[in-house]
Amino acid sequence: MKKYFYFLSFIFLLTSCTEDVKFNNPAFQTLKNNVFWRAQTYKAYFGANGTVIVEGSLGYENVILQTASSSEQTFVLGVNDVSKASYENTLPAESASFSTGTNIGNGQIVITDYDTDTNTISGTFKFNAVNEDESDTENPKINFTEGVFYKIPIEMSDIVHHN
User: What is the reported pLDDT for 25?
Assistant: First the structure.
């Protein structure tokens, strides 16, 4: 009888120790002013002159990252308008736009993987963006840290070639 009891206890112990692990694949998340922020929707695509744009959205909030290329490297923000980051809230009661640009804000976007087989892009980011409304003295800037975008599918535009 003891053997059955130990056996049943062991089975119960094994089954009660399982955990449901949810993998965020793909994912776009960050700390916005030190508060966890995870995008519900995300996308990536090629812009003009080979730029890569990665966007994450949560309700009325959008984070937009743009790099000069898809190269696996670090892109410094606040230097030019080619590699830049922005945040916008389009909710009318909380409408605001923040961005980096030439001599505006700072930070970096690091592309860690551009997988041409699966057509996905991954990387990290952090930035301080300046409020485009200079009269909003209560919110002069916004801060994003520990940002990660992981295996975001790159949408390919349908380019029609004419002969």
Answer: 80
